[in-house]
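User: My collaborator sent over this chain with a note saying "see what the structure looks like." That's all I know about it. Can you take a look?
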Amino acid sequence: MNGILILNTGSSSLKFGLYRSAAEPELLVEGQVERIGQNARLIVQSEAETLQQSIVANTHSEALAAVLVALKSFQGGLTIGGIGHRIVHGGTQFTKPALLTPETIAVLQELSPLAPLHQDHNLAGVEMALQAFPDAVQIGCFDTSFHRDHPWVNDTFALPRTYYDQGVRRYGFHGLSYDYITGVLAKDYPDLHQGRVVVAHLGNGASMCAIKAGRSIGSTMGFTALDGLPMGTRCGQLDPGVVLYLMRQNGMSTDDVADLLYRRSGLLGLSELSSDMRTLLESDDPKSAEAIDYYVFRAQREIGAMTAVLGGLDALVFCGGIGENASVIRSRIIENLGYLGLVVDHEKNNANARDIGSGSTRLMVIPTDEERIMARAVQAHLGSVSAVEATTA
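Assistant: Without extra context I'll predict from the sequence alone. Here is the result:
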C-alpha cells in the first residue's frame, strides 16, 4: 500500500508527517526536529505515544536523516509512493502544486535569492528525498501560490514597471497555512468563508492575510519573507533607506545586511536574548518586555491595515505556533481592537478554545495543518496516475 511522506522545512525546524494514501490521507505519525543548529530535538508523535530525544542536527540535511531513521519503525508495510515538499517560493511560474522534475528544480533554485532562509533548505530536502526514495513521486507545494491572484494594487511596488515585469512584486507567503484555514472555514463556517477574514499566522515566521470569499486579497509579506510583522530573527517592515544608510555609512556589504535582517533582528535583535517567544515571556529582562511590546503593537497595526484592505472585518483567526498557543499574546493583541468589534473572552482564550471572542466580530483560534494540504496534493497526483493506469490497462 502507498504511503505519503510530507516534509515541511522551516527556517529553524523540519516538520514531517507519514500518511496512508486514501481519498482523504490518513495521518499515521507526525513530528518535527526543532531548534536545528542549536540543541536540536526530535519529536515523533503517533496516536499511541510521543517520543522526544536530543539529536545532533546542525543542518536541515542532518535533521532529515534523523527523521528517516525514526520513521522506519512506523512505516510497517507501507511503500512511500509520494513525497510532498513545502517550497517557500514558487515565483510567478508555480500557481499550484507541481511535479519536481530536474527542470522544475532548476527553476526553483533560481528563486533562492528571494527566500534565502528557506529555499535552499527546501531543495536540499528534495535532493535527499530523491536519493532515499528514487521511485517515489516528488511534489512541490508552494507558499506563494495562494496569493498569486492578488489584485494588482496589492501585488506591485511603486517602481518602474519594468521591474514588475521582471518579477519584483509582492508574492506573499504562508500560503499553505492560509489554504488550510480557508478550507476549515468553508467546511465548518460557510457563511463566514464568504465574508471578510484576517488570518494571523504567528510563529517563528509571521504574517497576516486578508481573505475575502476564500481569496487572498492582501498580505503583510511582500517580495521576500522579510516584510510585515517582526519575526523570530527577521526584522519585518523596514524603511529601505535604512539599508542604504547601513551600506553607505557603516560600510556593510550586502551579505552583512542580509545576515542582519534575516538572522539577527526581530525578537532576537530587540531582546538581545532569544528568538523564542516562550523564552521572552518567562524573562524578567526589560528588553524582553520591550520586544514583546513591539511585536504586539505591529500585530495590532497590521490587523488594522488588513481590515482596511477588506473594507471591514467579519472574523480574525489566529494560527501558527504563537497564534495557537500563546494566549497572553493573543489577549494583548486584542486589547486595543474593540473598535473592530473584537473582544476576548479570557476564560476561553486561556483554554485555547476555537472561539475565544465575546464581541460582535468573530475571534477564533484554528490550528493550521500545512502538512495535510501537501498530503492532499500528493494524493491528488497519485490518484490521477492510478486513474490513467486503470484506463490504459
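A starting point for your reply to your collaborator: DSSP finds 15 helices and 13 strands in the chain.
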